[in-house]
Amino acid sequence: MSAAGIAFFVFGLTFGGVILGMLVRKTLPDHHFNSDSRDVVKLAIGTVATLSALVLGLLIASARSSFDTRDAELRQFAANIILLDRQLVHYGPETQTARESLRHYTSYKIDATWRSQASRSVVDANGWTLLEDVQDRIRALTPTTGSQRELQSRALEISGEIAQARWLLSLQGGSSVSPPFLWILVFWLAAIFTSFGLLTPPNATVIGALLVCAVSVSGAIFLILEMTSPFEGLIQISSTPMREALAQLR
Length: 250
Prior knowledge:
Mean pLDDT: 87
Strand content: under 5%
Number of domains: 1
Order of helices and strands: HHHHHHHH
Largest sheet: none
Radius of gyration: 27 Å
């Protein structure tokens, strides 16, 4: 299910809990709403609300940190591609085929990562092997001067960093939010909103306030899920650094 679908589901559970609480309120005897009963219910729900607020805050902070980390890793990835190309340029014309493979890999990586912005459909699941082809071509070079040997060594080092970053970004592609963790939080939120409907006399002002609150909570869940899947959805890491790298290679 997409982040938007889960957010709508959370909204339905929370606001539906409000309506359910109001309906249940009408069926309960008056002694269920005396001051002692209300105080106990408020204390119990206050405990759950505190837990929910802490967890939501931690999830948002963690999602934002994860988003910023992946963005920084991608920028470093793009910078290393440019740096590798410049090392090959300084080595000499013998590196032309390696540079062409690097351009093909960069173009493939952009289309494979940002599929919604891709200029063409990516059907080659093994396109990442283009990077290994670049490394093989660099290893096959036969330097004749000390400068070329230094450039070859540096190019291999940078290509190794690019390969490491490639696999790291690939393994981080999915959402980092555990589904059981998320659904326990949603259960807490639904219980809180049901108690709101149970303890509050229904009127337009109350329903409107709780509606806004339910929208806000589901919006927070949406932000968390979007930021933990940074290469798809509405909130994405920008592809500009990689496109600028490709422009430099061309």
